[in-house]
Amino acid sequence: MDVSLIYKGLGIDILESDWSDILEITDVNLAFNLFYDKLSTLIDNNKYTNTAEKTNVKFKMLKPWMSVGLSKAFAIRDKLFKSFKKYPCTKNKENFDKFQYKLSTWVRQAKERYYINKFQEYRNNSKQLWHLVNGIIKGNSSSSSKITLQNNNNLMTDSCEIANCFNNYFVNVPNNLVDSFQYITDDIKHLCLTNFKPFINESSLFLFPITLTELKIQIKSLSLSKSTGDEFLSSRLIFKMSEEFSPVLLNLFNKSISSGCFPDVLKIATVIPIFKKGDRLFVENYRPISLLPVLSKLLEKLVKVRLIKFLEINKFFSKVQFGFREGLSTELALQHFLKDIYRVNLFKAIQQPTPQLH
After folding, report:
1. What is the pTM of this model?
2. Which PANTHER family would you find in this protein's record (predicted)?
3. DSSP readout, 81-126?
């Protein structure tokens, strides 16, 4: 079924549906639960699935360094391989091996040209440069979706047992961390408390209502490539149907802000264990990644804008805080550090006594 027709049909259903019963509810949790239930029904009626919005798989599998000539060469390689499988003789094997060797050389040269040009293009853009490096590293790393764990010298292969094992370990990490605090001496605690300067401000934080324009801007800024914790409500769906979703979401989000209640349904995350290092059989060598619902990310972004603005107006941030701040980076931190070193060296040079000539 055509994806555009699915979006069109779902959009019409959203616009024609009566949302008044949900919008008039004052209970935030109940309103969001009913919204999810109703939206799920509309999506099911339009036979919308996550696979429907995926683009052509072959197109996604194409590498950035792939050219039309290489695509044709891969097709020739596949034909030679099929010919060798159908008629396994020495001549067919030699033809396949020779062409495979040439193709490997062409691919290596294409990769080299592509990445040399990209590194040259991003030489003044550290963000894009690191993104390129991470893509190379992740592309070369091998990972397996099948996880096997060892518990009490027994191997676990059942998915439910493995999930429970991860859950028990992850939920107890904070408790184990708290227990480790007992080894901290009173002197260290006193030192930490005396060096901590609390933020004292007489102004109060007020979260202004969200506007429709602001909500649409945040929706358009959603990353479509990242996974979410929703089974049926993806970032791509919200992005493509922002006009239809915005009025309903605006009411629900403002209801959450005015009541000071973050919906429980948006707190539910899909936790995925990611291997860190060491032996893959041991649960302590994994770290959890939480995939939050897309509406949770959207509401957090809107609240973050108001919180950051309040903190900046009241001068909460230090002048030398460069991390997690818009417009600041590690490059600026390094420049600031080098300037301090230059000032210190200059001050020392001035303070040194001038040698007298006799």
Report:
1. 0.64
2. ENDO_EXONUCLEASE_PHOSPHATASE DOMAIN-CONTAINING PROTEIN (PTHR47510:SF3), REVERSE TRANSCRIPTASE DOMAIN-CONTAINING PROTEIN (PTHR47510)
3. HHHHHHS--HHHHHHHHHHHHHHHHHHHHHHHHHHHHHHHHTTT-H
Across-strand partners of 275? 286
What's the average pLDDT block by block, 10 residues per block, for the chain (358 residues)?
60 87 92 91 68 40 76 89 88 90 90 88 83 72 67 84 89 78 63 56 81 94 79 84 91 94 92 88 90 92 92 84 81 85 74 60
Residues near 257 by beta carbon (within 8 Å), at least 6 away in sequence: 207, 209, 210, 302, 303
Distance of CA 89 to the CA centre of its chain: 51
- Sequence-distant (6+) residues with CB within 8 A of 48 are 6, 10, 232, 237
In one letter, which amino acid is 296? S
Q: Is 81 exposed, middle or buried (0-12, 13-18, 19+ CB in 10 A)?
A: middle
- Output the pLDDT for position 219: 93
Q: What residue spans define the domains of the chain?
A: 3-53+208-314, 68-138, 149-190, 316-346
